[in-house]
């Protein structure tokens, strides 16, 4: 089994990306700069950021050759009421406590801490700091920023205490703030003070790396981005942000959402403009990570199996991979490249794995979208099920068949379940598989599209064509091994991408029918792969099961069906089979009837409810 944590160990050949970004950062003429390392969930962003951090710093305090590197996980600030101030304060604190820089920047750090305290006052609402502020002022303390102290000095202590503790205290403090804008009063001064601290520290450049920003809630993402904006145009600084751009875009749209009464196309155009303008001003250099190619996936899997199968030889294998990658970045690093570096015993141990990799790398690449994390999770699940085969003492078991079925389970869960239904009534050997494989072999796409439309996509045809063939294979043992996943998918049992969790929440909290339709049209149809839709359906299903009586939750599936979202009727059918029909609101009958006018497939839902339930009776009356 393989760990799913980010690592600076480069099994993907991604060091070239890290080296490119390091080269940019080392060019003093482009500083200050903000770099966005963008990629899908699990694409390898964190590993690249780790490589960059390790290359630029070599001691506990992150300082090397005059470059100070500060590495932050954006998720750490998720629990803070004011993530913006927390991030700023943490950056300043790193300077203030640095073993070689602290004495040089002591005075500047104190000034910056006061500025951050002022920002926190403005952010959190004045009632949270009124009494402490009054106490500090009346006892001669200086914990408040100079601007606030100066304004308070105009009042007698008794009058000031009354204003700070009275019913209109918020308005009093707000009036003081409005006399001078935040941009003039705080932001500009903060930048000047931070620039002063950089100069006093005598470092050549500051590199701040912020990872896992896309795991945060929309509000926290924006707060972190707003904190970064404070450093824009500060000399000698480079910020590197790792995130899934879809999550960042959603956060910006969430913060600057448009009026729901706008037409959908107008709203989408305006949202896109707002998001693009915001990102262009913040990110000077967007760098999008490519998906892995077939050869890169094969190489990656080879190295993963080498890592768990080899002893001391693994170091030599990894070194050879790095050497070859510099000479040929396009080729596959496979068994032939490592054969001379390992022992005969290690060869035997790797043989089965290597043959499996070679035969399935192309469909794994296609089914898992060239995503490193998904590849690793796929292999972890495969290894776990392989162990179950051995523990259960199942004979005549072909592990390449298991792997092939798992690719379908991950990339097209509904078809995986279809094969299960076929084989369960035919002694494990469905005739439909024989027909499908024959049609693909004969390249009869016309008959395939007519009789098996959902199996006619290029990706599924490739899956059918690749070895091993399933004709004549008793599939019962393979589905017994996979029985824990028949109601969901591998991806559903894995760590779910943040953008899908965020999308599910948006759908459940849609607020109105027009907003719900807009979300489905803009973010689901044509935007999600089947595997992503299956994960989304699974997330929504769990919420409906917990709150079956919630009409709003059912409306999400009804809208999916009205919009003819692929797989939505199947998903809703599975859901209805799991819930208490007596808890389903009978008022849904009217919505079902309206949905039927837009999608005749809705009629499949009608006969699923128990005849004694109120919803069934209401449906019968509507019909």
UniProtKB/TrEMBL annotation:
Pfam family name, one: KAP_NTPase
Name used for this protein in its record: NTPase
InterPro entries according to UniProt: KAP_P-loop, NTPase_KAP_P-loop, P-loop_NTPase
Location of the KAP NTPase domain: 15-388
Gene3D superfamilies for this protein: P-loop containing nucleotide triphosphate hydrolases
High-level lineage: Bacteria, Pseudomonadati, Bacteroidota, Sphingobacteriia, Sphingobacteriales
PANTHER family per UniProt: NTPASE KAP FAMILY P-LOOP DOMAIN-CONTAINING PROTEIN 1, NTPASE, KAP FAMILY P-LOOP DOMAIN-CONTAINING 1
